[in-house]
Amino acid sequence: MERVGENKSFGGKQLRYRHSSSSLHCDMHFSIYLPPQAHNDPVPVLYWLSGLTCTDENFVAKAGAQRYAAEQGLAIVAPDTSPRGEGVPDDPDGSYDFGLGAGFYVNATKPPWDRHYRMYDYVVDELPTLINSQFPVDPHRVGVFGHSMGGHGALTIALRNPDRYRCVSAFSPVCSPMNCPWGEKALSNYIGDDSEDWSQYDTTALVRAAKTKLPIFVDQGDADEFLEEQLKTELLSAASEGADYPMDIRMQPGYDHSYFFIASFIEEHIQFHKRHLS
Fold this sequence. Notes:
Blueprint: E1 2-9, E2 12-21, E3 26-34, E4 43-49, H1 56-62, H2 65-72, E5 75-79, H3 119-134, E6 137-147, H4 149-160, E7 167-171, H5 181-190, H6 203-209, E8 216-221, H7 227-231, H8 233-242, E9 248-252, H9 259-277
Parallel strand pairs: 4-5, 4-6, 6-7, 7-8, 8-9
Antiparallel strand pairs: 1-2, 2-3, 3-5
């Protein structure tokens, strides 16, 4: 593991690393913010999963999360959104919604994607093992959150692993990849055409089947240009109601899909996680 960046931030440290990933068979970058409280004791940790076209650096630079993480004493880990580098396949058509920058936090099973595109294993197993061994974080107080494709990743990963995460939140998540163009493209290429195999990566299906009810907090802008076609928040609301799964889903008037939306409400999301990680 090699440190490739370091900055002082609100009394803590914003660090960036490169390491060789055994899950993804390539070098990966991740960023970690360590609050000032980490100088004395291990702190709770949040994993942030970003959306289409992003890297680990978008959240670090645009969300304004470090101030609130310092106030609440939380570390934040932000991995890249997909494998990258020589030999890692990309969308043959060069589209932004598949391939590089669009790992969708799944384990691909179809070639040529199955060797590198195993972001689910990376986020759930490999990266936390590395973080727990190298940084002063508490492995028993963990939350996950994300935006758009990363909101989908956060929700599905938490719902499938309620023993590992205490809480989950999302901005503008892709709520039902089985029922939107982004998800249908990603899942059919990474996993295959059998939609039964897709349900393990679909939040609405996982909510309907959930036996453990984690705290869930979702913010969605009602002026989001992707809301109707891609995000399908109404399907998550219906699944929550039908499964009697309580969750806080807020429609925010006038907000779009941008990082300005995230920056406007990131403080409340960090406070939400702090309540459940204390």
